[in-house]
């Protein structure tokens, strides 16, 4: 990292929540030059899930006799209506799975239960959920429905740039999402903003290599989108996964924490699969939600605030008693700062 120097600060956004944690865990974040600042971006799927979408699932479970199936991180996320953990404590059935296909397996083994899989995630998760839908149809698991809350990363980045809420000099781009959509997917929006980006993996060496490449671009005032993770990521992505996604999903609008409603930023079930769409089959009223007083999670997921600037961080809000999803998720910035001592960072 001593190869480069600059007379002005350089702000790099690590978009992926896994990068956030690994940059802490490997010590890279603490060893960067003073003129380099890292900020976290909207790359934690649990963190960017809007409260109204989780609250809708909670309302479904309260109104209908449902078993809610989802990933572990979603269970503890609080909303004004409580959490899925609260539901479970009230006697409702909430089942945690590690893979979407496990939801199909659970439904097949519990045919007396009406199951709803709450599917969250970026493009990384979409193929697995599409495969689960395929299995559901093939196996005729009529008791399984899907509440789809998939997000498309690139449209959110575009809205973030246009908002002017954070000044970014370069992007460390996520390897997992990029493996699906391809490195070339970022070029239109980054070129229009003049912000360079580097796709990188998650090992210490891979991240250091990516940061070094990105800093060279920033210092030299050059624009490019470079794939520094070619062993996994192709320029055009994984065409087989993209085809599977397009078989069951189509582009739609979606709500994001901190960014509001963004057109074309979500993937929703195609109309021909409305028979397994939980929002259609189990309608509820529109949830009325608001952020907890003092919680800055909506700003943290945009890189507009660091976790330590939140008045609730490490006091009222801890992993044991989270106020916002950024402290709950294994990819959340607040959880990373709390675990690895990020509150001691300044600037």
* Low-pLDDT stretches: none
Question: What is the name of the CATH topology of the largest domain?
Answer: Rossmann fold
Q: Please identify, by name, the CATH architecture of the largest domain.
A: 3-Layer(aba) Sandwich
Please identify the top-level CATH class of the largest domain: Alpha Beta
CATH superfamily of the largest domain: HypD, alpha/beta domain 2
Which strands sit side by side, in order, in the main sheet? 4-3-5-6-11-10
Key structural traits:
347 residues; alpha/beta; Rossmann fold; 5-stranded parallel β-sheet; 11 strands; 39% helix
Account of the protein in words:
This protein has 347 residues and is of the alpha/beta class. It has 2 domains: 8-295, 3-Layer(aba) Sandwich (Rossmann fold), CATH 3.40.50.11740; 297-340, no CATH class. Helices cover 39% and strands 18% of the residues. It is built from 17 helices and 11 strands. The strands form 2 sheets. Strands 4-3-5-6-11-10 form a 6-stranded mixed beta sheet, with helices on both faces. It has a 5-stranded parallel beta sheet with strand order 2-1-7-8-9. The longest helix is centred in the middle third of the chain and has 16 residues, at 204-219. The protein starts with 9 loop residues before the first strand and ends in a 7-residue tail after the last helix. The relative contact order is 0.18. The model has no long low-confidence stretch (mean pLDDT 93).
């Amino acid at each position: 990292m001593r190869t480069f120097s600059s007379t002005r600060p350089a702000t790099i956004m690590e978009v992926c929540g896994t990068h956030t944690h690994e940059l802490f865990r490997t010590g890279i974040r603490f060893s960067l030059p003073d003129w380099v600042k890292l900020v976290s971006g909207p790359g934690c799927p649990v963190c960017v899930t809007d409260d109204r979408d989780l609250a809708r699932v909670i309302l479904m479970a309260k109104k209908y006799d449902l078993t809610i199936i989802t990933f572990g991180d979603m269970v503890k996320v609080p909303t004004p209506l409580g959490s899925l953990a609260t539901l479970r404590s009230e006697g409702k059935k909430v089942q945690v799975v590690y893979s979407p296909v496990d939801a199909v397996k659970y439904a097949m083994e519990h045919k007396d239960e009406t199951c709803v899989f709450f599917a969250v995630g970026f493009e990384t998760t979409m193929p697995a959920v599409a495969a689960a839908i395929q299995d559901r149809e093939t196996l005729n698991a009529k008791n399984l429905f899907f509440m789809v809350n998939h997000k498309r990363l690139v449209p959110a980045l575009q809205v973030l740039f246009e908002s002017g809420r954070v000044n970014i000099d370069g992007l460390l781009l996520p390897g997992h999402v990029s493996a699906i959509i391809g490195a070339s997917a970022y070029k239109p929006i980054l070129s229009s903003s003049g912000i360079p980006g580097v796709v990188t993996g998650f090992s210490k060496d891979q991240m250091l290599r990516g940061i070094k490449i990105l800093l060279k671009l920033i210092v030299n005032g050059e624009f490019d989108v470079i794939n520094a993770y070619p062993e996994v990521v192709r320029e055009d992505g994984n065409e087989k996964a993209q085809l599977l996604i397009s078989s069951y999903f189509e582009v739609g609008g979606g709500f994001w924490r901190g960014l509001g409603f963004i057109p074309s930023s979500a993937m929703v079930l195609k109309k021909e699969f409305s028979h397994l769409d939980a929002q259609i089959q189990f309608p509820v009223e529109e949830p009325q939600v608001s952020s907890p007083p003092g919680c800055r999670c909506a700003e943290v997921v945009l890189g507009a605030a660091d976790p330590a600037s939140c008045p609730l961080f490490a006091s009222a809000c801890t992993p044991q008693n989270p106020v916002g999803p950024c402290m709950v998720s294994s990819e959340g910035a607040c959880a990373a700062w709390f675990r690895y001592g990020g509150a001691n960072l300044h600037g």
